[in-house]
Amino acid sequence: MYTQTNSSQNFIIYKPYGFLSQFTSNDSKQQSKRFLGELHEFPESIMAIGRLDEKSEGLLLLTTDGKMSDYINSQKVDKEYYALVDGAISKEAVEQLQNGVEIGFDGKKYHTKPCKVFRIEDIPNLPARSKKIRDARHGPVSWISITLNEGKFRQVRKMTSAVGFPTLRLVRIRVGNIQLGDMKVGNVKAVDVLNV
């Protein structure tokens, strides 16, 4: 386990849907994009730990401590997601996800590691998303919890697609011991240390 020094600056945020997990961009192609710098005035040396893609939302940890970032991104720390998937997910599909599935990564095939997956029977108490999502009026949907300790690019989305249930909404709710809890979308909390 890595223990942080007091000199680092750390933040826990609820990344909104539609934001990139970066603070600004000099890329002219990204002028229309939204960045974390809109949410708060962060220190210059801040970095996001384990990014969430533009269409994903939820718990994102930020730090100025590179060693803490490396530790959390390592396979020692679990990350839990709630995924709303298209269709009534079957027991077989859940078991496939638990055992690992084949996805594409960096132009190659990759077999995901076994992980914890279960169907959530009650709709999670999450804030409404800024962009409407197809819901059960247009056919069945299911919520699942998926806990990984690896984090390939768009991994959860690729995994649920691989078993025939594409992800409609993805919210990270936990990193190690740190929970999203009742944070509101766009909330930023400064913390002395990240107790993962």
What this model shows, in words?
The chain is mainly β and 196 residues long. Helices cover 13% and strands 33% of the residues. Strand 11 and strand 12 (178-179) form a beta hairpin. The protein is globular, with a radius of gyration of 17 Å.
Helix-strand blueprint:
Blueprint: E1 10-15, E2 19-20, E3 34-35, E4 47-49, E5 57-63, H1 66-73, E6 79-86, H2 91-99, E7 102-105, E8 108-111, E9 116-120, E10 141-148, H3 155-162, E11 167-175, E12 178-179, E13 188-191
Parallel strand pairs: 2-3, 5-11
Antiparallel strand pairs: 1-5, 1-13, 4-5, 6-10, 6-11, 7-8, 9-10, 11-12
Summary?
Residues 11-162 form the Pseudouridine synthase RsuA/RluA-like domain. The protein has helices spanning 66-73, 91-99, 155-162; strands at residues 10-15, 19-20, 34-35, 47-49, 57-63, 79-86, 102-105, 108-111, 116-120, 141-148, 167-175, 178-179, 188-191.
